[in-house]
Amino acid sequence: MIMKNIKLTIEYDGTNYCGWQKQTGLKTVEEEVEKAIFKSTGKRVKLYASGRTDAGVHAYGQVANFRIESTIPGDRFIYPLNDKLPDDISVKKSEEVEDDFHSRYSAKSKTYRYLVYQSKIRSALLRNRAYHFSYELDIQKMKRALEYLVGRMDYSSFTPIKSNINKNIRTIYSADVFREAEYIVFEISGNGFLHNMVRIIVGTVLDIGNGHRRVEDMKDIIEKKDRLSAGKTVPAYGLYLKRVEY
Questions:
Q1: What is the pLDDT of residues 54-102, one digit of tens each?
Q2: Containing H/E element for 35?
Q3: In this structure, are residues 64 and 2 in contact, taking their beta carbons and an 8 Å threshold?
Q4: What is the value of pTM for the model shown?
Q5: What is the three-class DSSP state of 88?
Q6: Cα separation values, 188 from 28, 60, 158, 174, 203, Å
Q7: DSSP state of 156
Q8: What one-character DSSP code corresponds to residue 167?
Q9: Which among 62, 161, 167, 227 is most buried, taking Cβ atoms within 10 Å?
């Protein structure tokens, strides 16, 4: 049999998982998918994901690939895998790709979405799906604040991880916020993201939207390269990996 490189596009509800990456003694998305592959093929494989998502974070379009010798056509893996996976994980697409494809290193951009449920009353049904925020928000101010983040720069103020010089440089291609039904939706695309980066950006922009900070403060926060200058880290359960572009 010929070795195949199989690409999976995966959707999951991260509520009951300790993130994507396998961890000893903990329930993770990666482990569940690898177990489903073993149950479907009798072979153990190593998954390579576009990136790790933290505990509680969801995905519309996580991408992972693995290599396997199998008679199953690339576009047919979706069926046995979904039959073996738990209900909160679903393979949306499977396909055979070129041997040099790597879910992480071949990626050109990622888009994250963050959902804020704006209401005076919290929702029981959305408690693991969106961050409840009851205060009024100025969307236009928030849009202007996000404009400061677009480009290639050092985002040290938006991660708790301290690093050597230039390690926290990334490129943000677009950053927007808008209303969608009962939600305030943030969408940010870039070539890569630091640990907690999107969640800290959202927390900072919410401060600007409710008048606790000025729009112009965003420029100073970026220039300080100091986590303490930015806003709080909003909860993981409002964050979704929307898509990965190749």
A1: 999 999 999 999 999 999 999 999 999 999 999 999 999 999 999 999 9
A2: helix 29-41
A3: no
A4: 0.94
A5: coil
A6: 25, 14, 14, 6, 14
A7: G
A8: T
A9: 62
Q: Residue 81: which H helix or E strand, with range? A: helix 78-84
Q: How far apart are CA 189 and CA 193, in angstroms?
A: 9
3-state secondary structure of 64: strand
Residues with a known catalytic role:
54
CA 49/CA 211 separation, integer angstroms: 39
Give the separation between CA 198 and CA 93, rounded to whole angstroms.
26
Cα(59)–Cα(119) distance, integer angstroms:
24
DSSP 142: H
| Long-range Cβ pairs for the range 171-174 (8 Å, 24+) | 173/109, 174/150
pLDDT tens for each residue of 13-60 = 999 999 999 999 999 999 999 999 999 999 999 999 999 999 999 999
